[in-house]
Structures are given as C-alpha cells and as structure tokens.
C-alpha cells in the first residue's frame, strides 16, 4: 500500500469519527479532504486487521490449552473444528452456566483456527463479555444489526463491501452470551449470510447461515432478552430457542 493510500484511509477514518459528532473535515479548512479509495484497499485493510497475529505463538497456545481441556471441552472442540475444515453442517450451541469454561473454549478454538492462517470472528452480546475474546466485538457492531430489531430486519452489510468480504473469508463465527439478545438478531444475520454466501462453494440454501459455521454459547440462567412491558410469553417468544433456526 502506498503512502498516499495510507493517508487517504487515515483521512477517511478521521472523517468517520467527526461524523459521529456532527462534523466533517470540511469544517476544518486547513485539513485535506479524503478522496475515493479503491474498495479492494478497504477490504484488504479489514482482512489484514483480523490476520494480525503470530501464528507460531497461537499454535503453541492452542497446544498448551488443549492439553488441559476437559473431556467436554475437547469433545466440543473436535466437533466444531472438524465442521470448519470438513465443510460439514455447522450450527452449534454450547450451553453451560458461569464458570464451566466457555470462554476458555472460545479462546482455544480461536487459537487453533487462527494458527492455520484463517479468520475467526468473535462477538458477544455485551461489551464486557466481548473484551474477554480475541479481537472481540459486540454483535451489533460487527454485524451492523439494527438497534430497533424486528422480524423483517436485516444487517446493514451490502454484498461486495469490505464487511461482506470479511464474513465470506471467516472460517468460524463465535457468538457469546447468545441468550441475552432477541432471536431476530440471529435471524437477521442468517438472512445476511444467506446473501453473502451465494458466491461461496460451501453455500447451501438449506443450511442455517448459508452454510457458514456458527457457534452460539451462553447460559439460560442469566438475563434473557429484555422486552419493555413484555409478558412472560413475549420474553420466551423472543429467545433463541423459539427461533426457526
């Protein structure tokens, strides 16, 4: 990437931050304005950020963690990693109450898959939980899920965009604290991936998420989706296990 391309990407980031405060670069005349940048450069940068790790260190970490994993963690690890690399059907839910080692499992799978030079997208339903995951983000931030979610909502990711290419490139999506959000969030992601995965050789219209391997995890003893003035029936209807997925 040339110095001018790096400069333009930097200016675009500054302009994006200013937009969130109701300002633009035009409000500061001495500052140069960003010009259009080739979409492939944006895609390259997004993917490079997710591949910014030391594969040798991750391979050692995965080996050390696998040596101390419990039989249940090892079973889940083998099933999910096999689904990732054997193009099998891959939609999983890992259930366990707090302290049973779900976060340990997410870090183990991430280290193993990333050590092979592949991408894992780690998200969580809450910001605090996302900090415990490698390159963790909230699900709403990563997948551009609308805040006012409805049955007809879709993720604000256009096919061919850098975010869409990242989703296409990712080998695994891990979503922690899954029971906390409305089921329409997962269904919005499923519809989005169904469109994005059409150009992938692993695409299947009959599989959830277009055939992408997705792991949800969490504890139903914790907070369920919050429905303002909702009845018990409304809350149960909004949970992930009420979804067609």
UniProtKB/TrEMBL annotation:
Leader sequence segment: none
Keywords for this protein: ATP-binding, DNA damage, DNA recombination, DNA repair, Helicase, Hydrolase, Nucleotide-binding
Q: Which GO terms describe its molecular function?
A: 5'-3' DNA helicase activity; ATP binding; hydrolase activity
- Say if the entry is tagged with keyword Metal-binding: no
The organism encoding this protein is: Arachis duranensis
Superkingdom, taxonomy of origin: Eukaryota
This enzyme catalyses:
ATP + H2O = ADP + phosphate + H(+)
How is this protein named in the record? ATP-dependent DNA helicase
**Would I find Hydrolase among this entry's keywords?**
yes
Q: Which GO terms describe its biological process?
A: DNA recombination; DNA repair; telomere maintenance
């Amino acid at each position: 990437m040339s110095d001018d391309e790096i400069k333009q990407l930097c200016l675009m980031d500054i302009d994006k931050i200013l937009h969130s405060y109701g300002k633009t670069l035009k409000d500061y005349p001495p500052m140069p304005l960003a010009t259009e940048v080739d979409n492939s450069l944006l895609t390259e940068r997004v993917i490079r950020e997710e591949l910014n790790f030391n594969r040798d260190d991750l391979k050692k970490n995965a080996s050390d963690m696998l040596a101390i994993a419990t039989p249940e963690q090892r079973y889940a690890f083998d099933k999910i990693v096999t689904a990732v690399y054997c193009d099998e059907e891959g939609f999983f839910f890992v259930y366990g109450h707090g302290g049973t080692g779900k976060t340990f499992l997410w870090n183990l799978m991430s280290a193993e898959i990333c050590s092979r030079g592949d991408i894992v997208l780690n998200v969580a339903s809450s910001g605090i939980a996302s900090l415990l995951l490698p390159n963790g983000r909230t699900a709403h931030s990563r997948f551009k899920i609308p805040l006012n979610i409805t049955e007809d909502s879709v993720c604000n990711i256009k096919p061919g965009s850098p975010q869409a290419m990242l989703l296409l490139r990712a080998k695994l999506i891990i979503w922690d604290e899954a029971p906390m959000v409305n089921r329409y969030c997962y269904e919005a992601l499923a519809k989005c991936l169904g469109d994005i995965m059409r150009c992938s050789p692993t695409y299947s219209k009959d599989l959830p998420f277009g055939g992408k391997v997705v792991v949800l995890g969490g504890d139903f003893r914790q907070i369920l989706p919050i429905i303002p003035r909702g009845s018990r029936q409304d809350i149960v209807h909004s949970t992930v296990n009420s979804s067609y997925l």
